[in-house]
Amino acid sequence: MARVYEKAYFKDDIVPITEACLSVASSAVLYGLSVYTVFPILITRNGLATFRLRDHYQRLVNSARIVGIDTFEPLWTYEAFQEAVRALAKANAISENVFVRATVHVDELVPGTRSRGLATTVSMFVYEAVPIVRQNGARLKTSVWRRIPDYAIPSRAKVNGSYVNSVLAKQDALDCGYDDCIFLDEGGHVCELSAGNIFIVRNGTLITPDTTRDLLEGINRLMVLEFAHDLNIPAVERGIDLTELYVAEEVFACGTSTFIASVIEIDARIVGAGSVGPITKQIREKHERVLRGDEPRYLKHLTFLDDHERGTDFALKYRGALAEVVGT
Ligand code: PMP
Fold first, then answer.
1. Which of 4, 27, 102, 316 has the greatest CB tally within 10 Å of its CB?
2. CB–CB of 297/61 below 8 Å?
3. Domain-embedded: residue 2
4. Which of 184, 208, 216 best tests ligand 1's pocket when mutated (most atoms within 8 Å of CB)?
5. How many folded domains does the chain comprise?
6. In this predicted model, what pLDDT tens digit does every residue of 244-276 receive, in sequence order?
7. Is residue 225's pLDDT more than 60?
């Protein structure tokens, strides 16, 4: 279990994590009607920074749009979101790499099964950046549970309730002695892991399922594709058959909490040479350098948080003023 930090952002305030509570009568609790994202706060060469924060914010907005949660986007600009992250980082005096889980909860009480025009609360909390999958030598199992298709609950939207699908599949893998699952879609094509995207290498080409294959549009997935371009590794996005996993030279998973995890076994078959492959190694090293702020080309993706002009008071006032303008 990861260690959770003491201070949370909740209802436009910094509060002890024990006080960041939702009602049992809220839609968030009743139906899992919340959307979320997880992003890192990193100790970089130039100070404390988040990684691709704007993309995380935008994915949150998109998730809310897909589900029909319409009170987040008008109230929360990217700037307000960023200030809340600054306030949270300052309140917790962060001195190691951590993750932030930011959630938009529908907290209207007993509104029935609907989503529009309902009150929302944003929460953010910080926890230890522990990888959720074994990094060197993960063993995966094809899940007996299929990925929820786009026409049921879209994987493109990061909806809390839909993670029951991930829980079922991951627990099935753990019960069978594996580290994580591989989700297949209804046609038997590869989607992703329980909480990470997947890449395979065949004949030296990096392949990942395209984003119409019932998967989360992972921010690190996009990064890996950019890294491949930089490193002159050919890369394609296309459907992947299950049996391609069995004959791939390399397989790895990626994601904020997955990092770049090398996979060495799938469904009792050894992948490639059964060790971390050379392309996985190259991508992982690049990923680590970028997150440390050691790659000038990628500094644009880091948002530095050590801005002492700002912090808690500014963030709270800023959100308060915004709420007054929109009249909530
Ligand atoms: N797929 C799923 C289902 C996930 O939950 C995650 C983690 N957010 C990912 C992929 C990876 O996404 P990201 O790179 O944005 O962390």
1. 27
2. no
3. no
4. 216
5. 2
6. 999 999 999 999 999 999 999 999 999 999 999
7. yes
Give the residue numbers spanning the domain of 86: 7-130+298-326
Centre of ligand 1 to C-alpha 224, Å, is 13
Query: What's 250's domain CATH number?
Result: 3.20.10.10
For the entire predicted model, the pTM comes to 0.93
User: Closest Cα to residue 98, out of 223, 2, 11, 221?
Assistant: 2
Res. 327: pLDDT tops 70: no
How far apart are alpha carbons 149 and 189 in whole angstroms?
Answer: 12
In this structure, the answer to whether residues 170 and 233 fall within a common structural domain is yes
Q: What local confidence, expressed as pLDDT, does residue 326 receive?
A: 35
Q: Is residue 156 part of a domain?
A: yes
Same domain, 162 and 111: no
Q: Which atom of ligand 1 is nearest to the CA of 222?
A: 14
**Secondary structure (3-state) at 157:** coil
* Distance from C-alpha of 245 to C-alpha of 265, rounded to nearest angstrom: 10
Question: Which residues have any ligand 1 atom within 6 Å of their CB?
Answer: 38, 192, 195-197, 216, 218-221, 255-256
pLDDT digits (tens, 9 = 90+) for 78-96: 999 999 999 999 999 999 9
Residue 21 tokens, joined: 């509570």
What confidence score (pLDDT) does residue 316 get?
45
Residue nearest to atom 3 of ligand 1 (CA): 195
Q: Which residues pair with 248 in a beta bridge?
A: none
Residue 307: the pLDDT is: 64
The rounded Å distance from CA 255 to ligand 1 centre is: 5
**Ligand 1 mean position, distance from CA 218 (Å):** 5
Q: Is 319 a residue whose pLDDT tops 50?
A: no
How many whole angstroms from 108 Cα to the centroid of ligand 1?
Answer: 27
What are the Cα distances from residue 212, in Å, to 149, 208, 221, 237, 257? Answer: 10, 11, 14, 10, 23
Closest-CA residue, ligand 1 atom 4, reads 195
In a domain, 1, yes or no: no
Quick one: 165 and 275 in the same domain? yes
